[in-house]
């Protein structure tokens, strides 16, 4: 969060399963649309927060399976664990607050008496979260009885039912809503309360997110029955919460537009962005668009025309160099010629490219360094590299690519793929 020196323009706090991630879309299209919008228009001055029911280990699995961006803050295990930044530094202050009227041993003892409850996987049992599966028809009754028994034993807990199957028991002070309130308070104390906050969710454990004051909310179109029921009973008249028409990340884009929180046209929804070149003086935009173009080029979705190659070459410094992640060097112009040979080579195949953590710094007047992680998914293989691009602004020509350098990401080092183009 230290990355930003002033209040975030927008803070998005989103659930993952069935909200940011559409498990019914193997192409991950709405997620990829969200990703390009975020990197294009928000990354530099906004905050991305993921708030999931998953434990750290299941969260990391999801990151391997799906093209998720790197969030600034990760709230896991239904608001019982908060971490910051890429290295996921835990917030110990938050954990301390959760010990109030909480005793894991007592929760396990009392829940053990209910035959309707089936314990979830070991990874999902956390210091401040005990989770079960329970049949829809039994959920309400079990929750009521359990909460009375735990109260008698001196505990103050919260029982949440999600997705028509999961039952979580947490300390009363925990939960996604409380974790968000804590985060907002922390940001406020640093003088960095976001200008706008948008909470996004689909199921029971997200309900609390929609009751935090001054926060916009979107329940995606595919929201679960238990969330819609909660909304009808508790938040029907709140104009700041909408039930989107679009599924998952598409619903988030819709809400950004409806609440007028900023641009909501994803670069993925723009068919020909090479046209709007000269007015574009934002080096971050340049990179997002280039890699999108690169994906379309290899998928054969843009025409193999001279005009494209010429336009790309015109935006490169004639002596500019590209350092391949293997260490090999080539001129930028030769790299474009190389790219030309690969037009349509991924046609009809599973091939996607996305960029993460695009950050531009003006190192001298008219000179920018852009750093980003670039990912390429080809079939079931995923490879990533850290990319730095040096740009200079040239009179009448817009931004010129001067130097591109890539190094394999930690997990891609072993693969050292020689077929990698750029
Ligand atoms: C995630 C967690 C699970 C929890 C559910 C609902 O699926 O893995 O433990 O019960 O979210 O919060
Ligand atoms: Mg969900």
Automatic annotation (TrEMBL):
Pfam families: S6PP, S6PP_C. One of its GO terms (molecular function) is sucrose-phosphate phosphatase activity. CDD domains: HAD_SPP. Residues 9-260 form the Sucrose phosphatase-like domain. Its EC number is 3.1.3.24. Keywords: Hydrolase, Magnesium. Pathway: Glycan biosynthesis; sucrose biosynthesis; sucrose from D-fructose 6-phosphate and UDP-alpha-D-glucose: step 2/2. It catalyses: sucrose 6(F)-phosphate + H2O = sucrose + phosphate. Residues 283-410 form the Sucrose-phosphatase C-terminal domain. InterPro entries: HAD-like_sf, HAD-SF_hydro_IIB, HAD_sf, NTF2-like_dom_sf, SPP-like_dom, SPP_C, Sucrose_Phosphatase, Sucrose_phosphatase_pln/cyn. GO terms for biological process: sucrose biosynthetic process. Gene3D superfamilies: 3.10.450.50, 3.90.1070.10, HAD superfamily/HAD-like. Transmembrane segments: none annotated. Its cofactor is Mg(2+). Catalyzes the final step of sucrose synthesis. PANTHER family: SUCROSE-PHOSPHATASE 2-RELATED. Homodimer. Belongs to the sucrose phosphatase family. NCBIfam families: HAD-SF-IIB, SPP-subfamily, SPP_plant-cyano. This is Sucrose-phosphatase.
